[in-house]
Amino acid sequence: MPRYQLKSAAPYLRDLAIAPGASLPDEFPFNLPILQKGRLHLRFTKRITILVGENGSGKSSLLEAIAAQAGFNLSGGSRDNFYGREVEEGQRTFARVLRLGWRPRIGTGYFLRAESFFNFSSHIDEVAEVDPVRAYAVYGGKSLHHRSHGESFLALFEGRFGSVGLYLLDEPEAALSPSRQFAFLRVLRALDRAGRAQIIMATHSPILMAYPDAQLLYFEGGSIREIGYEDTAHFKAMRSFMADPARSLADLFADNEKGGR
Length: 261
Hints:
This protein has 9 helices and 9 strands. The longest helix is centred in the last third of the chain and has 17 residues, at 178-194. It is globular. The relative contact order is 0.16. By secondary structure, it is of the alpha/beta class. Helix 1 (59-70) packs across helix 2 (89-97) and helix 8 (233-243) crosses helix 9 (245-259). The protein has a domain at 13-117 and 163-227: 3-Layer(aba) Sandwich (Rossmann fold), CATH 3.40.50.300. The strands form 2 sheets. A 6-stranded mixed β-sheet has the order 5-6-7-3-8-9, with helices on both faces.
């Protein structure tokens, strides 16, 4: 990964918006609630931004459009390591009408798609057929397939996430147990304190959402707004459950129990 001599610290991506006057088709992803009015404007004020919301709210689609505009392959990876993937025309259009405001623009970083990480690991193995030492150097010297899913994720985070870059993470908790999510928080802390990495992450994990001083953006209906950690539905649900699991389950199953009598 090239070294950048930057006078400014992260965040490098300061804002994004739909281009004024852009013609938006009536199809996915433009039928998402956050885009139905043809307007979208977000400002990134922290080095770590966490996108929060239910499935289908637009978090992943937005991350993918940012990745395309930033020059990352939409299969996942960086500019240097990627593999082919067919991209739907709607996603290409979303990326084309999205305008990113940089200060300064950078070309380093990584786009993590948890759903396709297996294929990325296979791609690294293919590269290693030519030069295994170089291909595996940043991953602890061995194939990502030779670890558990969680271990391979952490090897990627610890090895490839350099001090300068934009890192886009789509549900990284998918392969991480609670203990490994805490380990991942330590990785985030190191990157945050170095001041040269910007992370934009979509997650459903209350553990990852708890990162101190992160900017939490809540996707709900047709709006995206900043929200406090303890105000998220994820935190409230887990707090209620952990306070009294038996009562929570009894309430959850109450209608089913009545219907089965």
